[in-house]
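(Structure overview)
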Amino acid sequence: MDKVFIKGLSIQTTIGFFAWEKEIKQTLVIDLVMAWNIQPAAQHDDLSKTLDYAQISVDIEQFANQNPVDLLETLAERLADYLMASYQIPWLKLTIHKPNAVHNAASVGVEIERGQQA
């Protein structure tokens, strides 16, 4: 199975359970691995046949900002559903890091896998 990935995508969004978190933007760091057959794109050097990771990166930040939630878990599920439906991705692994959210930890977060690997 071929994979297209985005690692370390830093976005600013509103997320969190506490009232003060709803008033500010916080940094999230996204890692995304998507199953995709890259052969059609490689055969003719054709961007339209692959996953446009630049556009997907923009879509991730827009989605997070247009759909504020309290929990990273909720964002992960909704973002995975959105990406799979929008880009016809058969399988993905999504990790969302929330840096410096816990004292003495570089980051906390969630990691999910959805869909079927070929």
Observations:
- The first strand starts at residue 3 and ends at 13.
- The mean pLDDT is 95.
- The two ends are 6 Å apart (CA to CA).
- Residues 3-115 form a domain with the GTP Cyclohydrolase I, domain 2 fold (CATH 3.30.1130.10).
